[in-house]
């Protein structure tokens, strides 16, 4: 279909690529039911973008418990972000994770699927059954997490000023493991926003709309450049983010994560994180 959803296979023949407008998914599925699961995922994907476009004006407004959305994905987005009020967030802070969750849900409902991932630009929803195991990089590649079907992690997301999303903060990367990709997406955004040195002269900021014409952040200032910081400055910025991260830990499905800035790392949650592979 012209200008519609594009569905193809990557060269390895194992991963499906789903693309429509700003949405870009890579999916891999294991198990004897994977052929059917791929088909179901592709079918569901074709209507995702239009559902979001239909409610986009409201999705770009500050999050509110009083807003009612029609679409399943939009409702998940709003439910995810309203858990983080009074932080300034719009439901768009959860869009990548919520889309990944929706496709993962379709896959998980297919018989004989043992595991799968839906990677939406680095925000990942997981399907893990029984003794299934999945390994993923976190913190911009500085650590690796081994996720188990018996565990609770079903979403991984990363945010920071260098990424495709805009950030109020200066974190190189904040990765969060959570019970869903939507929750991980918003938590990573909120924590990354908090990693900051608000009055530092070496941090360059510009309005969000000057960087992305359709940004839901409007005239709010986002980070576009960060100078080389002294180690004590790096530590202070990370500690600001860590305090926010710890306040989210052990509630609302936020299970742990990593904060990274100019060679320093902080972790929160259980278990602790390191630069070595870890099991969760």
UniProtKB/TrEMBL annotation:
InterPro entries: ApbE-like_sf (IPR003374), UPF0280 (IPR007183). It comes from the Bacteria. This is Uncharacterized protein. It comes from Shimia sagamensis.
